[in-house]
């Protein structure tokens, strides 16, 4: 038969270990809901052990332990609730159904401003049916009613030839492309590559889209080869990544400071949204003060909404952002960690250095380099990215449609 005193001491030691685990889970707000569920399982297992050995535990101690265990469960439930990152409100009211008093289904009304932006991002109504929750034909009709689209040409036109045969001329139904001449396109590509010499086809396409030019990929590729010549390494470069999951846009921002230009007293600070990889704020500064990082954060927050959580390293320049987040959203809303685990921003630094940071190691001006940062962010936010089991989407596309589909976070409706 086990020694009751040894069993009691084991239970006491187990309680101390359990308490430390729960406190750590609460303060770090672990990203994986399965980890929170695992901690809850440990708490319930310990409660079962305490109830089984109730006869050997003093009454006051037993009462204290059970009360504390219930408090631990409440803490873990609260952590799981915060981790789920519930949207600020229901999904944005983009589509309304209005009863007209006539037979049939209610009329579908769509917010004009949202529809205009969505058509610019995705090009046509076919890809908007799922996020809008209505038929693509309905979206097409509303776009025509609002003057956001031109009536389509007939699918084909028949023409009788002199020999009596009938030929059909088909018209395209894809989005209208830019009427840029080859020379104009070459000049634009030349200007982009002169500023960002390591731009590839996708970044060039994103920069063209940011200027309102929708150009077929084949023309961009031909222009790139004409302007730049055949590159040494050309083709798809596959990047293997671990699965990354957050609830939606503005659920988690990553930020850091890049010191590649510190020799010339320049530091690049950036914030990137974890869901969409959208650059929400970027600035080139001549210092690494906490006040500067806070200013960059508020610029991004005022433009794109407040993130629910922010992740950064242990640098003292991050203190003010951490203070603001914890005052606004509570303990755990700022996640401290090593830079090697801050994957979104660390991956972004490669593109920053590769596309414009490296160039400025030999030649730069304060205002010009900051303009480069903004122009690069514009191209990055509009360039299409290859996603697993999904169509290509730009960071701006994913950011906006996440607010529509996953619910709004951090924005004022």
TrEMBL record:
GO biological process, one term: DNA integration
Keywords (A to Z) from UniProt: RNA-binding
Keyword RNA-binding: yes
SUPFAM superfamilies given in the database record: Ribonuclease H-like (SSF53098)
Domain annotation Integrase catalytic: ranges: 239-403
MF terms in GO: RNA binding
GO cellular component: nucleus
Pfam families documented for this protein: rva_4
Keyword RNA-binding: yes
PANTHER family given in the database record: CLR5 DOMAIN-CONTAINING PROTEIN-RELATED (PTHR46791:SF5), EXPRESSED PROTEIN (PTHR46791)
Protein name: Integrase catalytic domain-containing protein
């Amino acid at each position: 038969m086990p020694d009751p005193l040894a069993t009691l001491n084991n239970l006491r030691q187990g309680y101390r270990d359990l308490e430390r685990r729960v406190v750590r889970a609460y303060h770090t707000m672990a990203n994986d809901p399965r980890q929170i569920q695992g901690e809850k399982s440990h708490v319930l297992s310990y409660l079962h052990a305490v109830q089984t050995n109730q006869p050997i535990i003093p009454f006051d101690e037993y009462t204290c332990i059970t009360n504390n265990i219930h408090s631990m469960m409440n803490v873990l439930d609260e952590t799981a609730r915060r981790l789920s990152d519930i949207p600020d409100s229901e999904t944005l009211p983009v589509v309304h159904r209005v009863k007209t008093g006539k037979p049939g289904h209610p009329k579908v009304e769509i917010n004009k401003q949202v529809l205009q932006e969505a058509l610019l991002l995705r090009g046509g109504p076919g890809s908007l049916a799922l996020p809008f929750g209505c038929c693509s034909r309905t979206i097409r009709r509303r776009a025509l009613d609002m003057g956001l689209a031109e009536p389509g040409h007939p699918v084909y036109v028949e023409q009788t030839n002199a020999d009596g045969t009938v030929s059909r001329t088909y018209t395209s139904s894809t989005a209208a492309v830019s009427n840029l001449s080859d020379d104009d396109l070459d000049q634009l590509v030349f200007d982009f590559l002169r500023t960002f010499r390591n731009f590839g086809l996708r970044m060039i396409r994103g920069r063209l889209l940011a200027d309102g030019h929708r150009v077929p990929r084949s023309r961009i590729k031909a222009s790139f080869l004409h302007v730049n010549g055949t590159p040494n390494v050309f083709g798809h470069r596959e990047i293997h990544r671990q699965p990354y999951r957050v609830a939606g846009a503005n659920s988690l921002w990553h930020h850091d400071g890049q010191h590649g230009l510190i020799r010339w007293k320049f530091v690049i600070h950036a914030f990137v949204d974890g869901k969409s990889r959208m650059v929400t704020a970027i600035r080139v500064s001549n210092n690494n003060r906490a006040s500067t990082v806070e200013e960059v954060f508020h610029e991004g927050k005022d433009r794109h909404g407040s993130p629910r959580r922010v992740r950064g390293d242990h640098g003292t320049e991050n203190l003010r952002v951490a203070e603001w987040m914890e005052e606004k959203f509570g303990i755990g809303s700022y996640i401290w960690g090593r830079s090697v685990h801050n994957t979104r921003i660390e991956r972004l630094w490669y593109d920053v250095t590769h596309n414009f940071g490296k160039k400025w190691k030999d030649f730069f001006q304060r205002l010009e380099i900051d303009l480069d940062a903004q122009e690069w962010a514009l191209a990055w936010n509009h360039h299409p990215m290859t996603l697993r089991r999904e169509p290509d989407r730009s960071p701006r596309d994913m950011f906006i449609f996440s607010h529509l589909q996953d619910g709004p976070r951090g924005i004022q409706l």
